[in-house]
Amino acid sequence: MTDPVFRLVPADLERLGDRVIKLLGEIFSFSEWIFCPISDHVDGLPPAKLSERQRQRASQALSELKGFWDRIGQQVLIPIRDRSATTKQQTTLGTLVLFRVENSIGPEEAERWLPVLQSWVENRLEILRLKSSFSRPGEIPPYVSLTLEAIYKKEKSSASLLHLLQRPRANADYCSPESVIELCSMLWRHSDPEWLGGNPGEFWILLPGADEKKLSFGLGRLISKARTMRILISKAYGHFVSEPFDISQVREDIHGLERLAEELGTAIFCTSDLKALEDRLGLEGLRSRLDQVKKAVKGSSKCAVAYVRPAPHDLKDVLGPDGVFISGGRDNAFLIRKFGKKSREPDLIRWGNEIQRLCTAAQSTPSTIGIAASYQPAAGPSRAPVAALWAFMHADMLGNGSVAIHDSLTWNVRGDEILSWGDLPGACRSYRRGLKIEPSNTNLLNSLGVCLAELGRTKEAIDAFSRAVNSAPENFMALYNLGGIYFQRGDLGSAEKALKRAYALKPGDLRLAGRMAEVLIESNRAKEALDVLSPFADKPGQPVPGAIFRILGKAYRILNRWQDAKTAWQQAIKNNHEDSESMALLALGYLEETHDRETAVKLGRQAESLGGRSRQVRTVLCRLNKKLNTLEGQN
After folding, report:
1. CB–CB of 78/96 below 8 Å?
2. For residues 258 and 389, what is the distance between their CA atoms, to the nearest angstrom?
3. DSSP letters along 421-473, please?
4. Taking Cα atoms as reference points, which of 623, 620, 626, 590 lies closest to residue 607?
5. Which of 489, 464, 492, 457 is nearest to 478 (CA)?
6. For an engineered disulfide with 422, which of 220, 505, 523, 634 has Cβ 3.0 to 4.6 Å away?
7. Is 78 within 8 Å of 101 (Cβ atoms)?
8. Segment 12-25, tens digit of pLDDT
9. Would you say 227 and 456 are in contact if contact means Cβ atoms under 8 Å apart?
10. Number of neighbours of residue 158 by Cβ within 10 angstroms
11. Among candidate residues 170, 390, 367, the one with its CA nearest the CA of residue 286
12. Between the CA of residue 537 and those of 119, 435, 514, 551, 563, what are the distances in Å?
């Protein structure tokens, strides 16, 4: 096997060992066995009882990657080689120890069958690894289950699993597993991502050492990072598997979470997102509860669904013959009203007020209520239960005891939540659906523009922000965002014009000052940029973001104030240890101003490892590398 994706790893001895031994037992006689990964070796040997003389002989044989036959102890030690490497570079992944082997085999015979046995075991491990790694679309590769079982059998802890799906554009190829592993390595720096299997359009990745929080954080940045690497990920799911461990339940949980993500309208979702959502809704077992409500509305041509929290149980007595009350045993409930196909559509606001009146009468305090109907835009009987939950989150945002009917603002709430999970295209779809209801809503237009800008769709983002400004000429965020997207596009005149209008509304805004300063620097007006930023940087006791110091450094450098620029960039890095642009700028400054090649190279490498793929950092690093190459040529 030469494909690096399918190379065996030491852990495969534990993951695939049982299956190999079952096959080996059909052709070779032994009573006990152990696969020992190289990490469990002591002084180069696996845990086996050997005399001192036999230990020396076994150590010599294993160091040469050869098997060892201990006739007296009736045991065989077989090193498992990493055959993906060249013969001279081969190393051992671990050792298979077979106990109570028939001792009638002589030394000469052992020399003949030991290499055969070694190759047979290695071949079976490689074949099993290859076969168990592939799966049909939507199925979990067997190797994923084997990996999780081995982890829990040995460590009894937890594991983070990533499921990525890609849908390449027309005339584009699927990306390779190696590219996906590189992407994951950049997002989860302290993990050693491992490809477990899948098919050309799906990847299952193990993230060792990534806890639930780190899994969620990396997943939120995945789409943006993948886009910079030109990897088209269409869906990404993070599964945090913890005790109690039951592989059947794990498979069910994985499929359940991904089905729920589809219902919620998001392509990015993970275990911690589900837990946070359930906590916010006050629901346990969200998937099963939704299935229960969907079953109740099945067959209805028209229905309305309300989600109520807290919900007194007396409510079920006043719903009437067409009403359904579904409680989860806690302080919440779904209320369902069914209507005939030709029935008049009910007044949802009136229904909500009626529910609120009954709740207040029963418990002396108002409830928070979200309502959606099957006949609303982008809804239907099967989607109404989820829409009611989104409406509840809308109501909850308005304040405890509020009632919200699913509307354009609800789509804004949906988009914001989906955006927080990391699904930029999904958030855009939600904002657009809200705009179909209310085309001039500035919040929706602003939110849509931000997502489009993040996706690199600059022209569409400008259109969204411009529409927001036209709808509300004094909307600060619309003007601020419009100035930013013009700057990103290189239209400095339009950027300055929009930002000046924003400045007239909020002259003391620090973010605006930073953006205006960047425009002025690019317009060769560094002195004006300093005048804009200095009042903020010089205020004692006021925290200043690292980005402001980075911009200050640029202005100082242009004005030939190297020491001030160096201090500003060092402060930016102190504020944010992953500020790759400040590192790259500082590296270039050290080389050009002090000719400190060693420091420049060190900082340049750090910047490249942190964010060398962003346009700004690439530009600075390109200048740095050209100058370094020129110096090398001169020497």
Report:
1. yes
2. 18
3. HT-HHHHHHHHHHHHHH-TT-HHHHHHHHHHHHHTT-HHHHHHHHHHHHHH-T
4. 620
5. 464
6. 220
7. no
8. 998 999 999 988 88
9. yes
10. 15
11. 390
12. 68, 40, 11, 11, 16
Determine the pLDDT at residue 413.
96
pLDDT at residue 323 greater than cutoff 60: yes
Question: Are 469 and 478 in contact, with CB atoms under 8 Å apart?
Answer: yes
Average pLDDT over residues 220-242: 90
Please give the pLDDT value at position 4: 47
CA distances to 50, 102, 418, 607, 619 from 429, rounded to whole Å, are 67, 69, 10, 35, 33
Q: Residue 279: how many CB atoms within 10 A of its CB?
A: 10
Tokens for 562, please give them. 């190297």
Instruction: Give CA angle at 452 (447, 455), nearest 5°.
Output: 130
What confidence score (pLDDT) does residue 145 get? 94
Token pair for residue 618?
């690439």
Find the helix or strand (DSSP H, E) in which 546 lies: helix 546-558
How far is the C-alpha of 403 from the C-alpha of 307, rounded, in Å?
A: 10
Burial class of residue 151 in the structure, from the number of CB atoms within 10 Å of its CB (0-12 exposed, 13-18 middle, 19+ buried): buried
- Give the whole-angstrom CA distance, residue 214 versus residue 220: 10
- Helix (H, G, I), strand (E, B), or coil: what is residue 387? helix
Mean pLDDT on 73-91 = 79
Q: Which of 439, 432, 433 is nearest to 468 (CA)?
A: 439
User: Distance between CA atoms of 458 and 111, rounded to whole angstroms?
Assistant: 69
- Residue 1, pLDDT > 90, answer no
**Single-letter residue type at 568:** A
- Ordered strands of the 368-373 beta sheet: 323-327, 333-339, 302-309, 368-373, 403-405
Asked whether the predicted pLDDT for residue 63 surpasses 60, the reply is: yes
- d(Cα 171, Cα 202) in Å, to the nearest integer? 18
What 3-state DSSP class applies to 595?
coil
Task: Kindly state the helix (H) or strand (E) to which residue 604 belongs, with its residue range.
Answer: helix 597-611
Angle among Cα 509, 619, 631 to the nearest 5 degrees reads 130
Q: Which residues contact 482 (CB under 8 A, 6 or more apart)?
A: 449, 462, 465, 466, 468, 469, 498
Percent of the chain with pLDDT over 90: 57
The span from the CA of 304 to the CA of 458, in Å, is 39
Q: What is the pLDDT of residue 2?
A: 40
> 382-427: per-residue pLDDT in tens?
899 999 999 999 999 999 999 999 999 999 999 999 999 999 999 9
- Continuous H helices in 455-491: 458-471, 476-489
Residues present in the chain in total: 635
pTM: 0.85
Residue 624 contacts residue 600 (beta carbons within 8 Å): yes
Q: Which two tokens stand for residue 444?
A: 């929706």
* pLDDT-above-70 percentage for the chain: 93
Joined tokens for residue 371: 């309502």
Mean pLDDT of the chain: 89
Average pLDDT of the segment spanning 483-501: 95
Distance CA 56, CA 43 (A): 11
d(CA 440, CA 221): 30
Q: Are 622 and 587 in contact (CB under 8 A)?
A: no
Q: Quote the tokens at residue 421.
A: 């999970």
Kindly report the backbone phi and psi dihedral angles of residue 420, in degrees, each rounded to the nearest multiple of 5, phi listed first. -65, -25
573 neighbors 546 (Cβ within 8 angstroms): yes
